[in-house]
Amino acid sequence: DADVTQTPRNRITKTGKRIMLECSQTKGHDRMYWYRQDPGLGLRLIYYSFDVKDINKGEISDGYSVSRQAQAKFSLSLESAIPNQTALYFCATSDLKGGPDDGELFFGEGSRLTVL
Amino acid sequence: DAKTTQPTSMDCAEGRAANLPCNHSTISGNEYVYWYRQIHSQGPQYIIHGLKNNETNEMASLIITEDRKSSTLILPHATLRDTAVYYCIVNTGTASKLTFGTGTRLQVTL
Q1: In Å, how far is A91's CA from the nearest CA of chain B?
Q2: Each residue of B47-61: pLDDT tens digit?
Q3: Distance (Å, rounded) from C-alpha A88 to C-alpha B11?
Q4: A5 to each of A8, A26, B103, how far by Cα in Å?
Q5: CA angle, residues A20, A90, B106, in degrees to nearest 5
Q6: Which of A30, B2, B44, B67 could form a disulfide with B38 if both were Cys (CB 3.0 to 4.6 A apart)?
Q7: Residue B32's closest chain A neighbor by CA?
Q8: How far apart are CA B3 and CA A62, in angstroms?
Q9: Residues A52, A54, A57, A61: is their CA dihedral positive or negative?
Q10: Contact B50, B73 (CB under 8 A)
């Protein structure tokens, strides 16, 4: 089983619908992240969480919200989906050891979201 | 974080060494060079990182120039499964500030 699991892997929805993407991890890491990737582009950080009580906005948080239900679970919500939120979404985790290894992210397999 | 410059794409014959360059002329003394790759539309995968010494692991080698303004990721015997987008990132080790640009698309061919 994957260490970082995302559900659903694929979702097609309509404009205005509420969508939740879920992420769970078995790595025991405190830090979790949500990224989006548009075709031909790099990844952009949406939100990140350093622990259950610590949520931070990333580069492109508008239109998104998150919930850290437990150390192992981090959900991304689109309250009212719009077509330009069509993208590939990735969840990631990282450890905190206080050195350069903290720059190692562990990614899930991605959730492909299409908003019609 | 310092910006990086990578070629848009490269080709490599299977079995040969793939040498992927990265320029990071504005790198700071406390910034590391990280390499990740993304196979098709899978989640990116960490490969290696280094500060100033050359590094090697089971996946690749990282060669950093003495002035640290550029580096090269070496896949010693490329296989078709190494076809991917390779990202060079300069960072202090703060995962929340890793910036994934467009990377280098490596195509390994028979």
Answers
A1: 8
A2: 999 999 899 999 999
A3: 26
A4: 9, 9, 25
A5: 155
A6: B44
A7: A100
A8: 25
A9: positive
A10: no
